Structures are given as C-alpha cells and as structure tokens.
C-alpha cells in the first residue's frame, strides 16, 4: 500500500468513526420538534421532579430542541395547558397541537410516538369516563373493594388493548395502575369519614397490601406520581400519629433516598406548628433527614419561633389593623373575652369552605364570652385577590364577627410571630391575652366545640 493510499484510507476510517460516533451520541439524547398552533407565549416547558426545561417556539410556531434527560414521565406545558408525556434517550419525537383544542389536537409522530399517543388516549378516556370519587369513597368496605377492583380491571384492559406500545413502557403503566389501586386503599379511612360522615369500619386484612410496599424506592419515587403520593402520605401519617417518631424513621434516615428525604422535609416544615406537642421530635427528625444547610436554618428559625407559642404564654400582638367597619382594631382592644381568630384570604379555597361552619359556630356562641375575628392576609394591590376583593366577599357572603385586613399579608409581624406559613389557620387567645392554642381546631372540626365547652365561656 502506497503512502498516499494509506493516508486516504486513514482519513476515510476517521470520518467513518466520526459518523459512527455521531450516530451513537444521537441515541444518548432526546430530540423533540413540532409545531404549535395558536401558541401562548414563546416557550414550551418540559418538567419532572427536579427538572424544568424551556424550549423556544419560533415565530412560525415551530420548535426543535435536543434534551439530555433520563427515561421518565414528564409534564409538557404550553400556556396554562399541560399534558403528561414519556421521554427516553434516543427518542426523536414530533409533537403537534393547537392550544385552542389542546388535548384533542395533540399528535405524536416519530420514535416514541406509540407510547405518547397511548398516554393521550388514556387521558381522553378518563376525561370521557370520569370516576365519581365521592360515591366510591362513601361505600362500605366490601362494596368499596369490589368497585376499585372493577376500576383496576377496566384500566388494565384499556392498557393491554394497545399492542404497539413498547413492552417496558407497558410494564411501567401497569405498575402505575397498581400504585393507583393502593392509593385508593390508603385514602379510604380519611375519605370515607369525610364523604360518608361516619367512622369507617374495615377488616384486619383491608390495609395489608399497603404493608407490602417499599416506601424507600427512589427510582419509583422519581418515576411514578402515584407512588410519590403514597410515600408522602405514608410518612406524613407517621409524623402525625406515631408515638415513637425516631424509631419509625430509622430506616428512612439510613436510606440513600435523597429526593424522598428532601420532599418530606419540605412537607414536614408545615407540620411544625404552634402548640404541637411533637414539635421537638418533628424538628429532630427533619434535621436528620436534611442535608441542606439553608433548610436546616429555616427549620431552626421556625422551631425557635414556635417555642415561644406554648399554651399560657403571652400572645403576639397586632396593632391598628383596618376593620371592615371603618375603624382600626388592635388585639389589646379585645381583652376581657376569648378571641377565636381565623387567618384566611379570598384566594384560599379551604378557607372559603370553612365559612359556613364558622358562621354556624358564631351563631351558637354569639352570647358567650368570645369574639370571632377573621384576619385577611390578602395583598392590598394584588391584581385579582386584593383589598377590594376582601370587602366584596364580606358583603356577598354576609360575613359577621370582626373582619380585619392585615397590614402586610404574609409578612405581617403578627403572622410571622405565629410562624404561619399555610392557611386556613385558627388561633384561640384567652381574656388576658394569653395563648390557649396557636393551632386551634377548624370550625368544621367537632373538636372545636369540645374545646369551647371546656372553657368558661
């Protein structure tokens, strides 16, 4: 072989290896492209557990991007519309949709399209065949089990009739269905009591399937929203009910499931509340679960605030909050009577749902030694939910009692002093201005009447 031919062949070999390398790398990324009709804004958002990617939409509505992501379910959002998609390295997926008929118009083509067209059909099928959750959870045990088995069988049959989806994706879908079934079991005691208005009666075997779950599976936690909800609810229940939190969390503390730990710490932060006798144990466990110094600092600050809010301690004050009746009111103006405070906002759905129960309680105790005070933390100039919305809602819902508007929404000194980071929140203060409860029962909770009846009202 001549030197010239050797060089030519070497160049061809290198170029060939380059093409092979490029082709190989293409299978390590995910390529998405397509066209959006009537786009809202100029981006598409692809998101999952800790991932959020913005894909730019061109002026003509087209888009194309190369993503370095792992195999998982993702949310695809455009404007306020969103849908679930499934992506893997190696997918070359075309996505076309019209935002004015988002779910109906979305169409997938290319590698990965079969799995995603299945997800689209599944969503539309559920939308067209909704499950009456209230009726399901009102059922007694035997009828409930029969009903959720019927739902599970129907979902399995729907999934298995799609012969063209990839085998490993079918396995994922069937596993997700199993987690959905287990969610029904986990939620039954609470949901049945809420919807059927009676304490559920279940057999010893009812909850056994939940005992078989591994609640520390990081891979499934990141893959399946249904499993994630099972895990969070499981550990929240332990935090709320366990008599030995430290022992019950030993396994999770030793586990390397960092995502589960971080999410649980974020959720647990809201469980730290004034008057909670488990605050110290909760704080200790959350500190052990967290490896984030910023979160640890936040937890410590909140714990220190709550330590000053024990029963019998002097209540934090608010001064000269605007009263709906046109004057200013301070907490000190109300000394001599108990004060039941509802911290709420016009944008808070759970707050609004408590209003009928609050009105009923007010009537029941209207001639007793207690004031009923509602404290709005709406922002004064927020576009929709604001000062004017507060005044309007008071009139429309015929709210009674003392109606006050906080001076600085969430940043009000009174709100911060009580460590309030979620609403509705209810407080009870005695005639001397001391704390009875920094986290009193809601008006809809029978425990509130029990608490009132235990006092000298």
Helix and strand topology:
Layout (H helix, E strand, L loop, with lengths): L2 H24 L3 E8 L5 E5 L4 E5 L5 E6 L4 E7 L2 E7 L4 E7 L3 H4 L1 E4 L2 H16 L4 H6 L2 H20 L6 H30 L11 H4 L6 H6 L1 H17 L3 H4 L1 H5 L3 H14 L7 H11 L3 H14 L14 E3 L4 E2 L8 E7 L4 H16 L5 E7 L10 H10 L5 E4 L7 H5 L7 E5 L5 E3 L8 H8 L4
Parallel strand pairs: 1-7, 11-12, 12-13
Antiparallel strand pairs: 1-4, 2-3, 2-5, 5-6, 7-8, 9-10, 9-13, 11-14, 14-15
Helix pairs in contact: 5-6, 6-9, 9-12, 12-13, 13-14
Please give a handful of descriptors for the protein shown.
single chain, 457 residues, alpha+beta, Immunoglobulin-like, Glutaredoxin, 4-stranded mixed sheet, 15 strands, 47% helix, disordered N terminus
């Amino acid at each position: 072989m001549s030197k010239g031919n050797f060089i030519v062949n070497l160049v061809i070999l290198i170029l060939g290896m380059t093409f092979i390398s490029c082709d190989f790398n293409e299978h390590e990324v995910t390529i998405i492209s397509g066209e959006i009709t009537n786009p809202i804004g100029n981006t598409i958002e692809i998101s999952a557990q800790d991932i959020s990617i913005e894909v730019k939409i061109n002026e003509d509505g087209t888009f194309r991007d190369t993503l370095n992501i792992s195999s998982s379910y993702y949310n695809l959002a455009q404007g306020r519309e969103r849908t679930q998609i499934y992506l893997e390295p190696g997918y070359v997926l075309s996505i076309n949709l019209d935002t004015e008929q988002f779910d109906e118009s979305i169409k997938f083509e290319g590698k990965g399209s079969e799995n995603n067209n299945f997800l689209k059909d599944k969503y539309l099928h559920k939308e067209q065949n909704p499950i009456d959750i209230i009726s399901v959870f009102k059922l007694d045990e035997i009828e409930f089990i029969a009903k959720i088995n019927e739902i599970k069988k129907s979902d399995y049959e729907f999934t298995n009739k799609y012969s063209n989806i990839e085998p490993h994706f079918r396995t994922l879908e069937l596993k997700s269905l199993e987690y959905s079934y287990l969610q029904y079991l986990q939620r039954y005691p609470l949901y049945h009591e809420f919807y059927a208005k009676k304490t559920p009666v279940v057999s010893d075997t009812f909850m056994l399937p939940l005992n078989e779950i591994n609640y520390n599976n990081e891979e499934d936690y990141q893959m399946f929203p249904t499993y994630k909800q099972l895990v969070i609810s499981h550990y929240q229940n332990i935090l709320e009910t366990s008599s030995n939190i430290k022992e019950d969390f030993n396994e999770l503390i030793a586990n390397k499931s960092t995502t589960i730990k971080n999410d649980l710490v974020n959720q647990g932060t809201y469980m730290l509340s004034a008057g909670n006798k488990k605050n110290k144990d909760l704080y200790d466990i959350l500190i052990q679960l967290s490896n984030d110094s910023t979160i640890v600092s936040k937890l410590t600050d909140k714990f220190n605030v709550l330590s000053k809010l024990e029963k019998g301690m002097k209540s934090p004050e608010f001064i000269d909050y605007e009263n709906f009746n046109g004057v200013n009111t301070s907490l000190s103006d109300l000394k001599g009577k108990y004060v039941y405070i509802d911290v709420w906002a016009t944008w808070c759905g759970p707050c609004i749902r408590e209003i009928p129960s609050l009105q009923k309680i007010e009537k029941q105790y209207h001639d007793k030694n207690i004031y009923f005070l509602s404290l709005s933390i709406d922002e004064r100039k927020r576009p929709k939910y604001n000062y004017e919305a507060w005044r309007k809602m008071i009139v429309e819902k015929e709210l009674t009692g003392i109606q006050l508007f906080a001076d600085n929404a969430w940043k009000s000194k009174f709100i911060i002093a009580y460590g309030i980071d979620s609403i509705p929140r209810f407080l009870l203060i005695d005639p001397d201005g001391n704390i009875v409860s920094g986290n009193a029962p809601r008006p809809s909770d029978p425990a509130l009447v029990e608490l009132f009846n235990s006092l000298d009202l």
